Amino acid sequence: MKSRWSDQEAERFVARYARRWGRDLALRTYASRLLGREPSLVLHGGGNTSVKTQITNLLQDRISALMVKASGHDLARIEPEGHTGLDLSHLVRLQNLEQLDDRQMVDEFMTHRLDPRSQVPSIETLVHAFLPAKFIDHCHADSILALTNQPHGAALVQEALGDGVLVLDYFEPGFSLAKASAAAFRHDPGRTGMVWMRHGLVTWGQTARESYEATIDLVSRAEAFLARKATRSLSLEVRTSPEAARSGWNRVAPILRGLLARPTGHPDRPWERVVLIPLLSQGTLDLLDSHEGRSLAVTPPLTADHLIRIRNLPLWIEPPENDDSHAWKERIRKALSDYSEEYEAFAQRHRRPGPETGSAADLSPRLILIPGIGAACAGRDVKAAGIARDIARQTFMVKARIARMGGTYQGLDESHLYLMEHRGIQQAKLAGGEKPLRSHVAVVTGAAGAIGSGISRGLLEEGCHVAVTDLPGDRLESLAAELNGRFPNRVTAVPLDVTSTRSVAAAFDSIILEWGGVDLVVINAGIALTGSLAEMDSGEFRKSERVNVEGTLHLLSGAARHFRLQGTGGDVVLVSTKNVFAPGAGFGAYSATKAASHQLARIASLELAEFGVRVNMVAPDAVFSDGARRSGLWEQVGPDRMRARGLDQEGLEEYYRKRNLLQARVTADHVARAVLFFASRQTPTTGATLPVDGGLPDATPR
Fold it and tell me: Alpha helices of 569-666 — where are they, by DSSP H?
């Protein structure tokens, strides 16, 4: 590993931040980001950094301060305010205590913050306070953990790193670890760093660069040592290709996702779903295919910091002999039941009263390993599932390194695993805002138009993961780029021709590969044709029929098959039109084909109810645009409408506004809110049509 330190870049951080935050914290921010750029050092809020400095209060008193990373902050993107300032002199005095539980420790942190608005600091705050160095860095370096997580790890650390580091056996993070670290340092203060067994690496220095480069030096030595010792390879009888794994994933993931959903007891929202994303790298597939795979992979995480993300153990599922959906469903159901029973037994063995630990109502795995298919990473949303995937990838790499050097992996023992997973100070890292559709996956057809883009944005604002689909081209790509800027990782663009069953099936496969399944299908794609019946071209009519009717049929068929396989119900919302109830002269093809589409949705509501699937319709009047995004339908039919009425674009929009009872301009946001009403299941409703038209008496459904 190479040092990325640049004096020029460091000075840019000083120029940007020092005036408000001081030079020390500006350089602390820079060095923290350097550590955060290396996934092999820290992942997703892991690790912590600090600097001891002086601040001036309102009374112009100089106060010794510890600026330490706030809990859960990502070092790769940390800002100065991501380090919480605390009264250092008070923290140092806590060394005199014999005991300090988590609740007391956090109370001391919160009552001695220098800014009452700052966040809860790291669980390792007292380590940073008790060690005397000015700058301190702590990370969970892969190469260090590959040494420490073996039966004779301490000897391996000394062999790899030499006498320049202290080696400390495992202590519970927090007060116990801080006391032990301070005692070890006092006994031998001349070292440049400290290795915590089955936990990570700590380095220090009087400058930010000195501490950072001590980390890089020690990690580089560990990497070189591991490379020299890696003389073996995994033993494989078969080798699954990523292409074969993807095919298996698309068949099995919806079943797994459905069985991972937890029943809520709520009649309208009966399932608490998960987002499921795959890890199908060749290295992962090789590990799962190897003779050592199960014994190596079904072991505890590399470090306690990973427990809240991937639990104490992954679930291993052997493929059934019969490769059909029924056999898979039974195999997965049994494996999940066994996992829950084993986890509850594990909890019963180690659960203890008191403020340190809570209880877990959710006994399901976060990481599921299936030879021939790969690793499935589960979370309440794509962010949580992505963190699990990244940790799993790093974990597999380290465990494979240990195997290649002929070693045996050794993680934390059960009691430490249970304690760390359930400590309130750790569980607090998972707290976040609960959006109503946080765990939902939606597909929106015709998303590049005005109504489709408004619906997609509305779903995203409520936490949903959205596959925006349309014909390939700039309109779809620009929409995806725009939405990804606001809702990163929760938008995927899927080219889709609704007239093709193959294209519809490929779209479902693409979404399953992205997030594991689908919960909501919004059928919005449609085209318009103007002209009288007397002059209508039958070929053009058939084109409208293929998109508006057959396209609806293809989506309903694909959704029905998927929802039955997934087993947790679902929702379909058809974007219908007021023309179903009040057709317009010269608009016969659109009115007739949309009426057929509407009727298919009504039939689907009858056929799919037994599977917990609700099918509803929204019927908007004219929506001309969504911001700068013009309606494709009105680009087609608008010119004829304007000529017929002698109006320009503005006049046509005004005409449609004035013709409804409320004199309301109907927008894409209005249609989105109607879709959200059904998607969020506010009432026990299926087979219903919700007009979004400002009140058109002749278009009222009856």
Answer: 588-608, 632-645, 649-658
Q: What is the CATH architecture assignment of 242-430?
A: 3-Layer(aba) Sandwich (3.40)
Give burial (CB, 10 Å; 0-12/13-18/19+) of 272.
middle
Phi-psi region of 55 (alpha: psi -120 to 50; beta: other; left: phi over 0): beta
E strand or H helix at 25, and its extent? helix 23-36
CA distance 82 to 68: 8
Q: Which two tokens stand for residue 627?
A: 């911001």
Instruction: Give how far Cα 403 sits from Cα of 195, 228, 303, Å.
Output: 21, 13, 18
> CATH for 441-693?
3.40.50.720
Find tokens 């995927």 and name the residue: 492
Look over the chain and give the mean of its residue pLDDT values, rounded to a whole number.
92
Tell me the two tokens of residue 535.
Answer: 């002059």
In the set 17, 212, 339, 590, the catalytic residue is 590
Instruction: Look up 212 and say whether it is catalytic.
Output: no
Tokens representing 198 are 């089955």
pLDDT, tens digit, 9 for 90 and up, residues 473-484: 999 999 999 999
CA–CA separation, 348 and 342 (whole Å)? 10
In three-state secondary structure terms, 276 is: strand
| C-alpha dihedral (63, 66, 67, 71), degrees to nearest 10 | -140
Q: How confident is the model at residue 357 (pLDDT cuts 50, 70, 90)?
A: very low
CB 398 within 8 A of CB 149: yes
Q: Which two tokens stand for residue 547?
A: 């998109």
Q: Locate 35 and state its tokens.
A: 């550590």
Sorted by where each begins, the domain ranges of the chain are 7-229, 242-430, 441-693
In this structure, are residues 190 and 176 in contact, taking their beta carbons and an 8 Å threshold? Answer: no
For 523-586, the DSSP string reads: E-------B-TTT--HHHHHHHHIIIIIHHHHHHHHHHHHHHHH-S-EEEEEE--GGGTS--TT
Q: How far apart are CA 164 and CA 503, in angstroms?
A: 61
Residues belonging to the chain: 702
Contact call for residues 260 and 274 (beta carbons, < 8 A): yes
Are 429 and 72 a contacting pair, CB within 8 Å?
yes
Q: Would you call 360 helix, strand, or coil by DSSP?
A: coil
CATH classification code of 7-229: 3.40.225.10
Q: How far is CA 336 from CA 343, 366, 636, in A?
A: 10, 11, 53
Is 242-430's fold the same as 441-693's? no
Alpha carbon 293 to chain centroid, angstroms = 26
Per-residue pLDDT tens digits for 206-259: 999 999 999 999 999 999 999 999 999 888 888 999 999 999 999 999 999 999
Helix (H, G, I), strand (E, B) or coil at 198: coil
DSSP 666: P
pTM of the model as a whole: 0.91
For residue 340, the cross-strand partners are: none
Between CA 311 and CA 300 the distance in angstroms is 8
Distance of alpha carbon 643 from alpha carbon 530, whole angstroms: 13
Q: Which residue has the tokens 């794509």?
A: 382
